[in-house]
Amino acid sequence: MRKNLIRALSKRSSSHHVSREVQSSSSDESRKFRMFKWTAISSGLAAFYYLHERSKTEALSKEEILFTADEVSKHNSLESLWVSYKGKVYDVTEFAQAHPGGAKNLLLAAGKDLAPFWGLYQQHSADHVQEILARYCIGKLDPKSVKKSCLKSDKNTAYSNEPERHPAMKINNPTPFNGEPPPSLLLRSFITPNELHFIRNRLPVPEVDIATFTLDVSLPNGNVLPLSIDELKEKFEVIEMPVTLMCAGNRRSEFNAQVKDKKVNGLSWGQCAISTARWKGVLLTDILEHAGISYQECRAKGLVHLRVEGLDAGPDGVGTGASIPLERAFDRSSSVLVAFEMNGEEIPRDHGFPLRLVVPGTVGARNIKWLSKISVSAEESESPTQRRDYKLFGPNVTNVKNIPWEQAPSVQYLPVTSAILEPSTGTKGYAYSGAGNGITRVDISVDGGQTWTQTEIFNENDPYTQKSFAWTLWNFELEIPEDIKEDKIEICIRAIDSNCNTQPEKIDALWNIRGLLNNSWHRIELFVTRQ
Amino acid sequence: MRKNLIRALSKRSSSHHVSREVQSSSSDESRKFRMFKWTAISSGLAAFYYLHERSKTEALSKEEILFTADEVSKHNSLESLWVSYKGKVYDVTEFAQAHPGGAKNLLLAAGKDLAPFWGLYQQHSADHVQEILARYCIGKLDPKSVKKSCLKSDKNTAYSNEPERHPAMKINNPTPFNGEPPPSLLLRSFITPNELHFIRNRLPVPEVDIATFTLDVSLPNGNVLPLSIDELKEKFEVIEMPVTLMCAGNRRSEFNAQVKDKKVNGLSWGQCAISTARWKGVLLTDILEHAGISYQECRAKGLVHLRVEGLDAGPDGVGTGASIPLERAFDRSSSVLVAFEMNGEEIPRDHGFPLRLVVPGTVGARNIKWLSKISVSAEESESPTQRRDYKLFGPNVTNVKNIPWEQAPSVQYLPVTSAILEPSTGTKGYAYSGAGNGITRVDISVDGGQTWTQTEIFNENDPYTQKSFAWTLWNFELEIPEDIKEDKIEICIRAIDSNCNTQPEKIDALWNIRGLLNNSWHRIELFVTRQ
């Protein structure tokens, strides 16, 4: 039997390094290439028992030593992997390879406290897990040394009351907080747990007094109609639906990594500035009708934009704003929600407590958090996120100081995209298209785009219209051609949506000064080592 | 002053050959390349007068010679260019270069009768045009030799009553008739004249007796509600809107021309199986509501498809059918029309007289001509055009005898596409996207896709939503880099729609067994000759 070693290396970051020992099995003559079927063998299991026995006697003797959180945080690699849990510190370096979820997943918690991770993966509450962990205890955690996570700018009082964030989030900017979950966690479920949903804030998270909070709707007569959360729930039909939100900067990091000689402008997001939640709320159109706002009358008066504003006000007192075409606000099939629940809970502070405008299929920036004001207007929102930052230009617009902002429409609905999040023998990822267009097919290539086959897909599309406001997850059992000539292969992924749109091949022609909407084929190189 | 000659050569057909004498003018230092601005100079004008004088005396002496239509049809090139008009035959070979509309347009009528062309371009009704033509008369046309155009299968009685077609149509199949207009004519106006609208028939054009015709709507109680054309006009609000129809096979010919080793299945359409008309009719949803058909009740019963059938019945008596998701039939914003007028006239027989279902934004095949039956059903239409022919598979499905038809949804909405129809100093073309997504930008590259700039675009998009069911026309004043190294350049075009979707770069990954929906960048090579 022939054995090979396969090592996945993302072009963009080291987070995709995986190591698998693999073996060949029966080939399938019906395919274009004769293939070896590669399956992971559980080489970790033997090590599991071996390591248990060896560490058992060492653990207890070190239990009284005191470590600071800072010291723990430095042991964040496979070479030295420490974690803390309920006030104790554990050196699980040797256990990593035996971790049933794989060393890669244990690495997510390296140097950190286990509690939030175990809160997510509740199989760890079993007694035998606690027993195993106890064997690796090396001391106690100094409680004075524990800081709230992500409070990296304590001195900046504006950010002194930020919510706790999941320690596994990749922080693209600490204040305002911009973070995305690690690929392996994002993929675990169709619905993203609230604590792993990507966060893209522009200002400190506002504190909202729910007792006095109202959503203020500007009326045609100049008055304001205030609506409490309770009134929203009582007066209107409540709807819950899965909606994928995506930042227009998702996959931005690929621009600077792959395009030479010019740099895009914006936070360097990976492939995980996208998440899916079940949002519950009421239809915006019902609120507008209740307020006596008529589409026909507004349109006749030239009031063609629906404007909203959040409570995340900067020094000027103006919250982040957005607008959508009024026609869309009134269109029931567009399902624009004023949401008050996210995955069955009050919306977390980071995601807009107590209200968020959810405009399914649009760029994240139109889904205003901490929603507090609604009005109609002849003009788009003056927010820079409406008038400037989220506009798409050609690759010929390269001078950041001279962007013809007014020449492009603001980005609303999103194009079809996809990404590989788990490049291994069981390759996995997501695909998504905006505007309610469901994904109908996800194709994968293991030869850089020369030949293609179809992945297995999972989604909640309407079976007749293929309509969906949520993403599609896909997986594919990776097979390496037996006659592979090089020591690496390039996996490419591309999705096709219900309008038959698909993704462009290369990133070059998609380059734009703001680094928006990179939906080129996502590519990952896998290095193959024969054994 | 430096002079060059630029010659356009399409990769796909010779119809794009153009010849221009061009000269350099001021260069623009602000561009990436130093450019020469190339403008056509009217070298034709001198020839115009020269040719007139020479042919004046020769014409009359030949007036009594008799030619057959067949003989005239053989003189269809720039080397020998004959036309007929009102019973006379003219040799306009020498006039071709002096033709104010260019030799290329005169070539459209080569070997044919001028009447239908002059019907379109009414500038020819001026007296001086008749005088010029008279000078080139070489004889009379034998009236017995004149056949109706496109009746190439007279013997086949099923096709003995086809309508007249415009002689400039490029015939992809004579019976059933499948034809597309020449690129230069298609581009002349935002609205395509009825006689130039592409035609994609599947059977002989039916003869409809308008006196007895009814549209039959199947009712939930099993009865049928017949509606005459007059009733439709009286009972429902009449709507007129510009709608672009496109065959899913548009640009299919590029597959076989560019992809090696495998052939697609279907008629070899060029870039002109797309046209735009102002369709007038009533909303399908109004008819359904009038008939007492409720979306909620249908959906509850699992009746999720709206089925229609045309009168173009084959030997089995079943007309060409189609279905669309019932949700879409009821959605006012989808604007599904039962149309009775096309560009202000009764719908021509080739386009569905007296009624056509117009489903804006969908593939041509769902826009059933000679519409006669409407019903709701738990199943899609059984028509092969619904269950088989218009389905999109990956490039790995190559065996025409073993296509997994049931695994793909039927194509409904269309993806974003564009084409170059006039490759010359004033480059022109169209761009289009389905599902009501307007075009927001059309980019052109003169270096094979390395660098891009924006074309000037014209459309009727809603200014706030960018929504449109019609195409966008674009033009671009072509400039050739002064420092061009090769003797040819490759022009590429790509469009971006209101959902920010754009076109894939290459055709290879779009290859599919049926040759559907080629929306790769359209590419034209231009050969540059320095003088």
TrEMBL record, chains A, B:
- Can you cite an annotated GO cellular component? mitochondrial intermembrane space
Task: State if Oxidoreductase is listed as a keyword.
Answer: yes
Q: Its catalytic activity?
A: sulfite + O2 + H2O = sulfate + H2O2
GO MF annotations, alphabetized: heme binding; molybdenum ion binding; molybdopterin cofactor binding; sulfite oxidase activity
* SUPFAM superfamilies xrefs: Cytochrome b5-like heme/steroid binding domain (SSF55856), E set domains (SSF81296), Oxidoreductase molybdopterin-binding domain (SSF56524)
Principal EC category: oxidoreductase
Tell whether Metal-binding is among the UniProt keywords. Answer: yes
Q: What is its EC number?
A: 1.8.3.1
Top-level taxon: Eukaryota
Q: Which residues form the Cytochrome b5 heme-binding domain?
A: 64-142
Q: Which SMART domains match?
A: Cyt-b5
Sorted alphabetically, the keyword list is: Heme, Iron, Metal-binding, Mitochondrion, Molybdenum, Oxidoreductase
> Which Gene3D superfamilies does the record associate with it?
2.60.40.650, Cytochrome b5-like heme/steroid binding domain, Oxidoreductase, molybdopterin-binding domain
Cofactors needed by this protein, per the record, are:
Mo-molybdopterin; heme b
Q: Where in the cell is it found?
A: Mitochondrion intermembrane space
Q: In which pathway does it act?
A: Sulfur metabolism; Energy metabolism; sulfur metabolism
Which GO terms are recorded in the biological process aspect for this UniProt protein?
Answer: sulfur compound metabolic process
Name the job this protein performs: Catalyzes the oxidation of sulfite to sulfate, the terminal reaction in the oxidative degradation of sulfur-containing amino acids.
What's the name of the protein? Answer: sulfite oxidase
